[in-house]
Specification:
Layout (H helix, E strand, L loop, with lengths): L1 H14 L26 E5 H5 L2 H4 L2 H8 L5 E5 L7 E3 L24 E3 H14 L2 E6 L6 E4 L11 E3 L5 H12 L8 E6 L9 H18 L8 E7 L5 H10 L7 E4 L20 H7 L9
Parallel strand pairs: 1-2, 2-5, 3-4, 5-8, 8-9, 9-10
Antiparallel strand pairs: 6-7
Helix pairs in contact: 1-4, 4-5, 7-8
């Protein structure tokens, strides 16, 4: 139910919030703020945070609480996921990754996602009847932290060089060979996180097309192939983002792109949760505003 999902979301956040001051949460059960169909329900989980909570993913109580969010899609990703190297051991990471140069800027070296970590994520999703969208490592092999870039923002966070696809290909082959993709527990792959301000749009487009083709090739023997989503955006009227969106249209193996919205950050009621992420009209139409409507 909507109330059950709201309570579950608050409990999931509260159980694993770190270093939070004491606070009181009041939930009104007498009024429904908004309704949304299940296919629009999704949640984001920063990779770095998820890696620090792998132990919790095996906790039966956490799984029961999280199951009240079903049938949501849970996207594990964010900028930290762009740097992960996939390793093929069953050892599980039990601590949150640390780096002397924590976010931002970018880390000095890739972090590791073992197959033990990945199976823990899948087991959690399966137990809670949730679907995983995994953000893949588009920045792996690239050199970032440049102090100059051809865009007037994010100084020190521009990336150059080529995406090293050998690691992600090995990972996708592992997923295929072990029959881990089922279209539900493992729902889809996403490439990159809001990289329009970190990476040349031509390179970004080429990476998306490369991943789409790679998935089609690896799953050539399968009638149903994993969905591939392009890097997320939170600005449909950004010229660079528009260039990417237009150039991936109809690309083989590419399903679409993801969109990030941040309700409340504008400080006005027009950017509230109810008016944006829980409005089917906005999700279907309002998301494509401004110059993006000319796509």
């Amino acid at each position: 139910s909507p109330t059950g999902m709201a309570v579950a979301a608050l409990l999931v956040a509260a159980l694993f919030a770190q270093q939070c001051a004491a606070s009181t949460v009041t939930i009104s059960t007498s009024k429904v703020a908004a309704r949304i169909r299940p296919e629009f329900v999704s949640f984001g989980w920063e990779m770095e945070a998820a890696m620090g909570e792998l132990k919790d993913m095996a906790d039966p109580l956490f799984r029961i609480v999280a199951s009240h969010l079903a049938p949501a899609v849970v996207r594990i990703g964010g900028i930290s996921a762009d740097w992960y190297k996939y390793t093929f051991t069953m050892e599980r990471t039990d601590t949150r990754p640390t780096d002397p140069n924590d976010w931002p800027p970018f880390p000095d070296a890739p972090r590791n996602l073992s197959m033990g970590d990945f199976h823990t994520m899948l087991d959690f999703m399966r137990a809670a009847n949730l679907s995983l969208q995994l953000n893949l490592n588009e920045l792996y092999g690239r050199v970032c932290n440049y102090t100059h870039q051809p865009v007037p923002y994010n100084p020190g966070q521009w990336c150059e060089g080529n995406w090293d696809t050998t690691n992600v290909r090995e990972f996708l082959q592992y997923v295929h060979d072990n029959k881990l993709f089922d279209g539900h527990t493992l729902y889809s792959f996403e490439l990159g996180n809001e990289l329009v301000s970190h990476l040349d749009p031509v390179a970004n487009t080429n990476d998306i097309i490369t991943l789409g083709a790679m998935v089609q090739e690896i799953w050539a023997d399968a009638p149903v192939k994993p969905r591939v989503y392009a890097p997320s955006t939170d600005a449909c009227n950004n010229p660079e983002q528009l260039q990417i969106m237009k150039n991936i249209t109809h690309a083989p193996g590419v399903t679409g792109y993801t969109f990030h919205a941040y309700p409340g950050q504008s400080g006005t009621g027009n950017n509230s949760l109810e008016r944006i992420l829980m409005s089917e009209s906005w999700l279907r139409n309002g998301i494509m505003t401004g110059s993006a409507a000319s796509m």
